[in-house]
Amino acid sequence: MSEEFHSAIVAPRGIWWRPAHKQEKRWIIISFIWCMILFAMMPLWHVRGGQNPTGIRAKVSPEDFVARTNRFIEEFKVGEESGLPVVQPPPGADIYLLARMWQWTPVLKLKKDTQYTLHLSSADINHGFSLFPINVNIQVVPGYDYGLRVTPNSTGDFRIICNEFCGIGHHIMVGKVLVEE
Ligand SMILES: [Cu+2]
After folding, report:
1. Ligand 1 mean position to 51 CA, how many Å?
2. Which of 13, 22, 26, 84 shows its CA 20 to 30 Å from the CA of 150?
3. C-alpha 170 to ligand 1 mean position (Å)
4. pLDDT tens, 53-109?
């Protein structure tokens, strides 16, 4: 077999021992600097951009979380909307939002400029909490309680969209948050 023949079975002769071309070195340096900038952006954006929300993390069994959500609904329920309970918690309250195939329970009625601790968890599989039309995204994982301190800063009628594919009803998994003055 000739030296020139290349295939997946016969590897071509390497050139790793030859020095890299000037242009190649230049691009390696540029890429490295860019990597370092992006790397520095992660902690910087955590502080400056208000992203990567910090909060309380705790383990919770799905059954316990469902029980907590039901207790919360019972305590502060003010109505019903297309079969889902509408809940209006007092300022500063711990509020519970349960994700399950394929709904968000309950509908939350909140007050503007009031702080709450929002607890998020799932009763079955991974879901994604995405508040529309605002850019808020967080993973909702069964077995974990994500407690986020939230203060709604605008009034309106918001939708919670699931952004983690969770099966056949994924696209109908839409929840609701109402923020009033
Ligand atoms: Cu989902």
Report:
1. 22
2. 84
3. 5
4. 667 888 999 999 999 999 999 999 898 888 899 999 999 899 999 999 999 999 999
Question: How many whole angstroms from 131 Cα to the centroid of ligand 1?
Answer: 13
pLDDT per residue as tens digits for the range 154-166: 899 999 999 999 9
DSSP symbols for the chain: --TT---SSSPPPP-TTSPPPHHHHHHHHHHHHHHHHHHHHHHHHHHHS--S--EEEEE--HHHHHHHHHHHHHHHEEEEETTEEEE-PPTT-EEEEEEETTEEESEEEEETT--EEEEEEESSS-EEEEEETTTEEEEE-TTEEEEEEE---S-EEEEEEE-S--STTGGG-EEEEEEE-
Measure 38 CA to ligand 1 centroid, in angstroms.
30
The CATH architecture assigned to 55-180 reads Sandwich (2.60)
| pLDDT band at 5; cut points 50, 70, 90 | low
